[in-house]
Amino acid sequence: MKKLVTITVICAIALFTLSLTDKKSGLTKNFSFGDAQIASINQLAFGPEGILFIGDSKNAAIYAIDTKDRVEKEKSEDINVDDFDIKIAEALGHKVENIAITDMAVNPISKSVYFSVNVTDGTPVVLKLVGDGFENISLKSTSFSKMPLENPVGLDEKDRRGRSIRNWAIADMKYHKGNVMVSGLSNKEFKSTFRSIPFPFNEEQDYASLEIWHAAHGRFETYAPIKAFDIISIENKDYLMAGYTCTPLVLFPLNDLKNGTHLKGRTIAELGAGNSPIDMIQYEKNGELLVYISNSNRPVMRLKYDDIINFKDSITHEVSEFGASDGLDYDNLPFVNVLQMDNLDQDNALLLRRTSSGNLVLTSRSKKWM
Amino acid sequence: MKYTFKTRAILVFFCFMIFINCKDEPAIRNITVNYENAKAVSVSFDFASTKAFSVHLKDRATPILGEYQTEGVTRIFTPVVPFSDGLTYAVVMDEKVVSIFSIKNDTVESPELVGIYPSTNELPENLLKMYFQFSQPMEELGESLEHITVFNRTLNKEEAVFLELESELWNKDHSLLTLWLDPGRIKTDLIPNRKYGLPLLEEHEYEIRIDANFRGANGRPLKNEYTKSFKVGKSDKMKPSPEDWEISVSGDKVSIEFNEPLDAILLKECFRIVNTENKEIPCFSKIEAKEQVLHLVCPQQLNKGEYKLLVDTRLEDLAGNNLNRLFDVDLSSKNNMDTSLQKEIRFKIN
């Protein structure tokens, strides 16, 4: 009898645990299960509870995928994988020239690393790094939610009728305090759009046209597209820190980003022409907050948060010498050809970089040495 | 020594079992590559065993990611990404290759470049963008500029005139590519403009070359190398002016003749005809005369009466000047910019 009671109690606990695991959280209660019909993957970003956001330029939409990858881990193992692109190509049964790695994101809960990969034939792929191998994240049988990106100012009715769809290129995407932030460019106008989309997705999304003083230009420039951005908090107020081609770094107060507003930014640095920012991350080291920017034609740059908050000026004069910098000081770190960069855990960053011999290496790097 | 029938039966059974165990694994039979929409989406074979297997690129140790299914004696492997045309794959069991198969799809055709826009061969010095229309979806690796080069025939050198974007601008089926000429070099006084000047120079002759290594999404290279030659004229510093357009009607066709070539893609979507009750007349667009003439063909016969041609102000000329503003505008000037979304042109059918 005692045995029967024990078994019954164990079963009840197991069922209760199972029901808890299976229960949808508030964030995923509107999710559907099935084929997300994602057409392309340009950007990845992690939100809370292991939710992976996918920027799909072809469908002009943002998807939230429930990876169910929620087992907390404080520290990642060391990562050091050589010939990274060759390994991905082999795992997909293709030659390396048939694939391109488009983005990388680390799940802040599990410290697992995810990659989006483009293949010649356009099949969208998300892979999770497991040891030095990969696991496919199914996009066809998944729990997901979708948010179409509205057209920018001057919404064209014809687009809604399906006659013509604006082509999008999603440049960067981040999750911040309940909102998915997206910067993008369309093929119809050379106009940057920045959107803030509340998550869980509903009907709302805010967008703004952003105006910057381009020091290299010597006057205001409305139409430049943001290439990479991050959110930074200054005196308890959140700011969009946007990096542009050629390479002004500009602050916009996020609170002012309301539907259709036209914001003027404050240019705090000119990081030199002939370059585009690729990724921006920030973390605290020895009690000091630091911002890191990887670049297309420059090494990784390190900026000090204190310098950012203490720089009250706006650069409104011309930088006339080609490639010269202005505004904030920064350090060039000895990391070149960094194609992807993210925070791995509290002590390490993760870099995907091409070495001078052509080897594509994925390595964790102690923040002590960055 | 005599054996009983029972003993003999047991001996025969043991011999049979030894024979079975000494034999190789059951052979893989009927290996078939399954195609869907000309893509090799899976491989299947008959195998009378439940032994696990994996599929690899030939001579590679990494198993390909995908799904395994068993239907009776048929084993099916569906890779995450369809198999690649021209490659050979191996079926592996117990670390031994038990079968190989190659993908060769003769029904797959090479893509062709069917149009470059602007199609005219005289382009303004401040040309803003070009479109490349292919006959089928192209590879999705974001490396188009490795295959599209511009040669300045006047200076006898290759020039980098297009803006490199991390995410390229393609239409949804990946058959139409938009390339921007570097706006930083077009806009007056930007450092790239000062340092390098305009991407295209007046009076110079150029040739755009699209090399035959540019592959379609099916992995096949372009049928040919393609070239387009053009000469560069003066900068276009005028907005398109609807007041100067000529409208004519013939049968079910309303034709608008511009006095310059306009953006080939925007032309198709910036025009609508409505009647006096603002009800839209369904029409389709046809572009002629190197994007200088637009025909709106309205299968529903146009009756006598008054109509309005509605034109979206975002319609651009080849320099990116739209109906409201110039692309390279001096923002320090105090001119008020027209912000209307649409212009109306009235016309009458007698």
How does this model look, in words?
The complex is a heterodimer of chains A (370) and B (350). Chain A is mainly β. Chain A is 11% helix and 45% strand. The termini of chain A are far apart. Chain B is mainly beta. Chain B has helices spanning 5-22, 183-186, 191-196, 264-267, and strands spanning 29-36, 39-46, 54-57, 66-71, 74-79, 88-93, 96-102, 113-117, 122-124, 129-134, 148-152, 157-159, 169-170, 176-180, 205-210, 226-233, 246-250, 253-257, 271-275, 280-281, 284-288, 293-297, 305-312, 342-349. Chain B has a 5-stranded mixed β-sheet with strand order 9-16-15-11-12, with no helix packed on it. The radius of gyration of chain B is 32 Å and the shape is elongated. The chains are: A mainly beta (370), B mainly beta (350). Chains A and B meet through helix 2, strand 6, strand 9, strand 11 and strand 15 of A and strand 3, strand 13, strand 14 and helix 3 of B.
Report a brief summary of the structure.
Chain A is mainly beta and 370 residues long.
**CATH top-level class of the largest domain in chain B:** Mainly Beta
**Helical residue percent of chain B?**
under 10%
Average pLDDT metric of chain A: 83
The overall pLDDT average of chain B reads: 88
Largest sheet of chain A: 6 strands, mixed
Number of domains of chain B: 3
Gyration radius over CA of chain A = 22 Å
End-to-end Cα distance of chain A, whole Å, is 64 Å
What structural class is derived from the secondary structure elements of chain B?
mainly beta
| CATH architecture descriptor of the largest domain in chain B | Sandwich
Number-wise, the strands of chain B total 24
Strand content of chain B: 35-45%
pLDDT < 50 stretches of chain A: 15-22, 152-165
Strand content of chain A: 35-45%
State the assembly state of the protein chains: heterodimer
- Largest interface, counted with CB-CB under 8 A? A-B, 64 and 64 residues
User: Which segments of chain B are poorly predicted (pLDDT under 50) over 5 or more consecutive residues?
Assistant: 14-23
- Tell me the Rg of chain B in angstroms: 32 Å
Q: Shape of chain A from CA axes?
A: globular
| Global shape of chain B | elongated
